[in-house]
Structures are given as structure tokens and as C-alpha cells.
Amino acid sequence: MTETYVGAIDQGTTGTRFMVFDQGGRVVASAYEKHEQLYPEPGWVEHDPTEIWENTKAVITQALADAGVDAEQLAALGVTNQRETTVLWDRDTGAPIHNAIVWQDRRTTGRIEALEEAGKTDEIRAKTGLQADAYFSATKAEWMLDNAEPIKTQRARPADLRERAADGEIRFGTIDSWLIHNLTGNHITEVTNASRTMLYNIHDLAWDEDLLEEFGIPRAMLPEVRPSSDDDYYGYTDPSGFLGAEIPVAGAFGDQQAALFGQTCFDPGEAKNTYGTGSFFLANTGEEAVESDHGLLTTIGFQRSGEPVQYALEGSIFITGAAIEWLEDVDLIDNALDTEEIARSVESTGGVYLVPAFTGLGAPHWDGRARGTIVGMTRGTNRAHIVRAALESIAFQTRDVAEAMEADADIEITDLKVDGGAVKNNFLCQQQADIIEATIVRPEVDETTALGSAYAAGLAVDYWDDLDELRNNWQADREFTPKMDNEKADAMYSRWNDAVERSLDWAREGDV
Fold it and tell me: Which residues of this UniProt protein bind ADP (predicted)?
């Protein structure tokens, strides 16, 4: 009998990965391709959607070829994606109207402030579970409809974008929709991604007419919302297309919910933190949408076909891994792998604190005008102190969220499952255990974002039977227990809060 597998497209902020998993949740094949980061103005971040799609095809083809796996051996495809990043495309030609506006982009901060001044943010939060912020998709789509200069291959003109959108000729989607459209031809999003648009009512499980009107988003341009694991499938790949096979596309997740699922956090109270460009701390709250009083987001965790939605609390930290990339950009390190050795070369940061608020601060602060800050430097400060401070900032920001999580959900976080590229750094994992005073558990398969979307697709096509089978697949690689004295950890955290205060409300209109 021919071996079968499940494939997962993991479309992230800096690149696209395709992974193939077997029945045991083990990686059979993997390929990765970076895409260009576009910064047309300070605070603006864009991606080329066409480049993302071309890279997606390339990594699928490469991974299958490297592993000697035929496309026909794929039982299903799953998709996971950078959330909130927004694409508008032409229904008829399939070509993007404008570059994708990335979740990190801050160009609509002024619009959010206008909503705050008008007293509309409480209503937004009540319906969507989200803190009104430029991070989410609604103001990005609104901006494109108002300001986009369509890509030259398009027949659309800026003046008629809204009219065409109202007629359904322009389609809106987050990256999952863009990939599903290109894979199947269908205009579909999945419920966790919909919950990140600031247009979707997470209690009614429907696009909200009042919010659509507020942001001027025509209902006709929105995708159909489907479960994360969909027994009816989102569609099939074209057998005459690049894969040469008709494969069901049956599961999708926003990347952080995918990691929650891949870490098998299926029960209320189970939590994970994913360390990527940013870090995202999610705790399952079951069928209850817990409201936060401490700056966290209430979001949809996952949904299987025919079952109730499972909710989660989320702390969104905008910059963690990107702080390490910044160290490279300014030539303080040659490679991210160097950070562990450099950080260990000094006993402490010497009182230096780095707040990596390069695109503002997310949970629990939510200050779009905060900016990156280094405090506490003396003439004796050297690069090792700054590198160590950058790593410690990741741990401190995670504690910010952990404390808010415990207060909102009335839980005590004693164990935290972690994943993402940064968790390969043992110094960071130990520092994280020390600072949040909890055990850090690193899994054997740390690409849990891709694994989560594979699980969603595989469950839909009965490749895996149930959640218990997935739990049995999960194995710990290593646990890190706290070693630092609690009083010392608390004192360091107190000084971190002092540093954060100095980063807040810094940016002004016209700053360059």
C-alpha cells in the first residue's frame, strides 16, 4: 500500500515553508523560501502577494521532490498564515490590487486614534474581542480602498475601487484566503483568521454589519467563513495545475491558533507561546469567550466541523525574534545562533534594558506610538550587554502577558509549551523559565504551526481519527525549570517596567 501524508503550507511574515507530515506527526519533508520585506515609508510594511504565491508553489514542489513524495500521496493540504496581513485582488484576473499590508504596519494609527476619540473602541472590543489597533485588518482594507494606486497590470483605477468592491469585483482576504483562492479558485477564509480582521463578531460568528459600515468594507468583497478543520473541504487543487493532482484543501488556521492546536492545547487552561518575528501567548478558554481587563485579546482558538467554537485569550507581542534580526541589521551579531554564546559571556546586562517597541507595543500596553528604547547604558556597556538585554526583553514581554493571563482567566501558569525558531536557544528558554517563574516545555517537533494546520486538514479527511491520537503524537524534547531566586526575578521585572514607561507615546506625526 502506498504511504500517504498530509502537507502544510506555513506562510509566515518573513518566508514560506512547506512541510509534509506522516501519521506520527513526524516531518517527512520541508522546504523554505524567504520573501522581500517592503518598507515604502517609515512605519509601513508591505509584501508582494504574487511573490508569496510563487514561493508557495516553489517550496511545495521542492519539498516533494527532495523527499521523493508524489503529490498523489498527499491525503490533504492545510494552510497556516501570518494573521491580519491584508490582500485585495481582482476577482476576474486574480491579480492583487496593491501590495499586501502586513500586520506590523502602522500607517492607520491615526484612524485608530480617531475611533478612540469617537468612543467606538468599546463596541469594537465587545463584538470582536480585539483591542482597536492598526495591527488588525479592518483599517488596512479601508486604507487600500481609499488610497491604493493599483498595480500597473490592473484595469482598476483608484477612484472606482469602492464601486467595484461593492459589486464583488474586488476580493478581500487575509493570507489564508489568498492562498486558498490560488489553490482552489474559491473565496474562503477560516474562522480564526476571520476573528483577527476587526470585522467579525466572535459571539454571533458572522461578519458584523455595523463594523463593515464603519470601515466602509462592502459585504460583497468578503470571503465565506468556514471551520478550521472542514469536513466539507475548502476545495481541491487543480489537477492540471502545478501539482498535477486533485488534493483536498481541508484545514486552515491563523498561525498562532495553528501552534495552539499543534501543541495539543485542546483543553481549557492549556497554554503555549510561539516565538517568531513576534511572540504570541495563547491560553485555551474552552467554549467561554473570556473578556480581558488587562489588555489581552479574546479570540477564536479553533473550530472543527459541526462542533462549537473553542475560544482563547491571547497576548500579542509585536517584536521578539525581530529584535534579534535588528541585532544583525546593526552588526552587533553575525548570526542569530551567536546570541546564546554572546549572552553567556557576561553575568548580566549591567543594568541595560532594551525595549524592542520598533512597531509600537502590543499586549498588555497597546501603545502604537511606543518606540524602541535602550536604557541603563554606561561607558562600560558593550555589545554582549545589549545582546543579552535583547534576549531578556523576550522573557520580560512574555511575563507581561503571563501576569495578565493569570489575572483575567483566574489560572496559574505552571507549565508553558513553547515553539518557534527562538526556542532552540537554551539561554532564552532558561531565562524565560526564570523570569516567569514557571516550567518551559519544548516539544520534539518545534514547527508546531505547520503541524497544527496539518492536523486540521488531516482530521477533516480522517487521516487522523481524533484528538487523542494527536495528543499521543506530542513528545517533549526538554523542560527548563526556574533556577533564579524569585526576589531577583521580580526586581529585574520591576526595572523592566520602568524601561517600558520610557518607551511609551514617543512617536509623533512627521517623525522619520
Answer: 13, 17, 277, 321, 421, 425
Amino acid 150: pLDDT: 56
Average pLDDT over all residues of the chain:
91
Binding residues for glycerol: 83-84, 135, 255-256
Note the Cα 400 to chain centre separation in Å: 18
Rounded Cα distance, 413 and 270, in Å: 9
Provide the annotated binding site for sn-glycerol 3-phosphate. 13, 83-84, 135, 255
Provide the whole-model pTM.
0.84
Q: Where are the chain's structural domains?
A: 321-437+482-503
Q: Coil, strand, or helix at residue 468?
A: helix
Q: What is the pLDDT of residues 129-166, one digit of tens each?
A: 998 999 899 999 999 999 886 554 454 444 478 888 88
Task: Output the known binding site for ADP.
Answer: 13, 17, 277, 321, 421, 425
Q: Is the dihedral of CA 463, 450, 366, 491 positive or negative?
A: positive
The pLDDT assigned to 158 comes to 46
Contact between 53 and 183 (Cβ < 8 Å) = no
Question: What value, to the nearest 5°, has the Cα angle with vertex 230 and ends 256 and 8?
Answer: 50
Residues tagged in the binding site annotation = 13-14, 17, 83-84, 135, 255-256, 277, 321, 421, 425
pLDDT digits (tens, 9 = 90+) for 486-499: 999 999 999 999 99
Give the model's pLDDT for residue 509. 65
DSSP state of 265: -
Question: Annotated binding site for ATP: which residue ranges?
Answer: 13-14, 277, 321, 421
Q: Is 299 helix (H, G, I), strand (E, B) or coil?
A: strand
| HEC letters along 493-505 | HHHHHHHHHHHCC
